[in-house]
């Protein structure tokens, strides 16, 4: 589900990041300056003895000077608790007392179309990759090898080969249904 940026900003503004993170860490009393919204703790992402994890309410961000992890409310919950982004948004919206936006039928239809297009693009990519590795892609593979691209690099960048036939992809996709 996609969330309107104004909705995300509103729940970020209503819930201080220190209250989200404070449920998981104990703030260091010496370094923390709560009236200024400046909090320090031992990092929940890696083991340490001295506080290097900094959280600033004004900016709505956290950063660990030990392991370089950083982010906002949502990233903290997704990375530490393993929540999905929508779950993190729902949790923070609940903390803020803000109702979740209602999905309208048009948005749902667009999301299904987007998923369908992504699936088609994935099938087309696989088709072109198969052509590159097949007998008709021999010259293209030789060219790529001469240019210094290893098979691993070709796979990593999902390189493919488009055959001369105009209808090859169309026929392939039609056969797949």
In summary, what is this structure?
The protein is α+β, with helices and mostly antiparallel strands.
Question: What is the topology?
Answer:
Layout: H1 5-14, H2 17-21, E1 38-41, E2 53-56, E3 61-64, E4 70-71, H3 73-80, H4 85-96, H5 105-133, H6 138-146, H7 151-156, H8 168-176
Helix pairs in contact: 1-4, 3-4
Can you identify the CATH class of the largest domain?
A: Alpha Beta
User: What ranges have pLDDT less than 50 throughout 5 or more consecutive residues?
Assistant: none
Separation, N- and C-terminal Cα atoms = 27 Å
Largest sheet properties: 4 strands, antiparallel
Structural class: alpha+beta
Could you give me the name of the CATH homologous superfamily of the largest domain? Answer: Zinc finger, CHC2-typedomain
Total tally of structural domains: 2
The proportion of residues in beta strands is 5-15%
Under the CATH scheme, the architecture of the largest domain is Alpha-Beta Complex
Strands of the widest sheet, in order across it, are 1-2-3-4
Determine Rg (CA atoms, Å).
Answer: 24 Å
CATH fold call of the largest domain: DNA Primase, Chain A
Q: Choose one word for the global shape.
A: elongated
Q: How many E strands?
A: 4
Total DSSP helices: 8
Order of helices and strands: HHEEEEHHHHHH
Relative helix content: 40-55%
Mind explaining what this structure looks like?
The chain is an alpha+beta fold. The chain has two domains: about 5-95, DNA Primase, Chain A; about 110-175, no CATH class. The chain contains eight helices and four strands. It has a four-stranded antiparallel sheet. Strand 3 and strand 4 form a beta hairpin. Helix 1 crosses helix 4 (about 85-95) and helix 3 crosses helix 4 (about 85-95). The longest helix is centred in the last third of the chain and has 29 residues, at about 105-135. The two termini are about 25 Å apart.
